User: Fold these one by one.
Assistant:
Number 1:
Amino acid sequence: MSDQTDSGRRLSTQEAARVLGVKPATVYAYVSRGQLASRRDPAGRGSSFDAAEVEALARRSRREAAAPTAGELSVRTALTLIEPDRFYFRGVDAVALASRYRYEEVAEWLWTGTLTPGTRFTAPPEVLKAARRAVDALPAHSGPVDRLRVAVAAAAVADPLRFDLSEEAVLGSARCLIPTLVGALPAAGTGWAGDGRIARQLWSRLTPREPDPDALAVLDLALALLVDHDLAASTLAVRVAASARAHPYAAVSAGLGALEGPLHGAAGRLAHRMLVEVLEQGGAAPVIAEYLRAGRRVPGLGHRLYQGEDPRAGALFARLEGLDQAGPALAAAREVASVMARQGGLHANVDLALAVLTVSCGMAAEAGETVFAVARTAGWIAHALEEYQERPLRMRPSGQYHGPRPPRPMP
């Protein structure tokens, strides 16, 4: 029988099982997994459960049971909606938002649903010092994601509050982590006085050239556009880690690990090198022909989520038109896209547009990968925050065993 206490209505094990539509033994399994809290009855009549908590778990279970199961994992999110020709951050057109507000402001919108004009992220000196020391110890040939992974680990160790998964604590860590990642990267030149913006700090890590305001605005736009893009492989890795209640630094590390895969993070580097080849050859046709002859995919083209041009690419191309130094690389990219559109209907994606920026501003081939990783860290934090509000360990698919049937003789 249920009882009434000061903390609310309580249910017996049998009543909780009826609400959840499971056997009583399964109720205790929920308790052991941390999905449900129980309280021993002082009179020794068994355990009781908070009715509101049981009903909330039942609602989540019904929603998950109704979710699509056609071979792909479906995850509820209120962050990013992607349509055939555009995408949205919390219901607002993402291109319009990124074109009007700076990266930090777009990140805050994604995290909280509130715009905070003029917001700045600051790295605590002791955390930044630890991250720089760790990154400086790496071999000289280390790549950008290598450095970022090490910087995240060092920042985590330096943060005693990393295990606090409350929204306030996670957001505080995020606002410190992003500038720490940027500040831990080696400078590309002597550096220039900045104004504290992430785009300005990152610029000096990507190129020795002094930035003009228009070029810096393009980099800031790229960061804002790349903040999130639904459940890419790295974002799913972050949500799996957060589902296990890994702290935000560990969740970001999971994302960086997935980003290391050649099918996810290397596209910008490949597009950069292709554009350099086109400029050296004086045209796209011979370069494309060589790619196809070797059986290689032409980078920077096509996206499984868009029927036409990637809207992020369109926004960056439009802004790059205002940069005199971007003219040759922009023309080369459009020639590549034009040739491939005639051949197979492929359109430019954000990697090709980002390559125009990196080539025209004297950045290294891996600069696009760095921009992507720094930008997406904000999105990974947003997804971790969402996942912390879900049932723990919910991302536990069942394996389909295809091995030999037991019993087999002992080897």
Number 2:
Amino acid sequence: MIISLDIGGSAIKLGIARSQTDIVPMGRRPTPKDDFAAFAETIRSFIAETGETPSRLAFSIAGVVDPDTQRLTCANIPCIHNRSLASDLEAELGFPVLIANDADCFTIAEAELGAGRGHRIVFGAILGTGVGGGLVSDGRLVNASGGFAGEWGHGPILACEAGNPPVKIPALPCGCGQKGCVDTVGGARGLERLHKTLHDLDFPSEQIIAQWQRGEEKATSTLDVYTDLVASPLALTVNITGATIVPVGGGLSNVGPLLGELDKAVRGRTLRRFDRPLVVRSECRLEPGLIGAALLGLKAEAT
């Protein structure tokens, strides 16, 4: 039996997995952000409530692990940031621990149980608060030990002009320390930032999208620029990885017309031509982090 945990900035979610087809969510607790002892105790009490002894703990976390030092980068939970988290939790809790990036967990869930079934190479894209991604090849995560592969949201690659007619796009600063990353415009906060940059209007992403769907001029302009900016790096990612399906998760994936426009734009820019949808809504809508972490834990137990 594997216990999988999805660690977010506001909540820790727990699930029990006995097989690929038997993964059950078990509830959530608030995340202690600033006290590692409280963080470990929350997990310990969670495990105790199951009344069972797991063979392994598998964590989905919004962060990356340095392959050389094993230290975690997780800015939104200070008490685990810059720790060798796997070894620290193993010492505290007494179980083998597997740490995985949340976008990687999303992607393995989609590859095994979601929209990526039947595809050798699956690129999972997150368009949520920010932009993330993961890459699965032949059922295995690429660069599973760190969580870096698939992070198409970062790197100074954004076009300096976009839209029809083209408008100038400044190289906006990114939280990763670089400028001009897809993350600066691609997620919900990025869409809001882009609308502010183009029209000097502070609107939430939901309002911008609603106005776009009503055909309002400024929102339509913003979404035209957004699609142009995001489609090119995503098409390049497909070219580089050879992915034949791109399941999309995160809040913006719920906007069907936006995903349709993005799919059309991406397919028009890839070297291989697809006569079917390529960029699609994810299918694992219920706790993909828990599902992906559980799948990775079960694979680790089987090897």
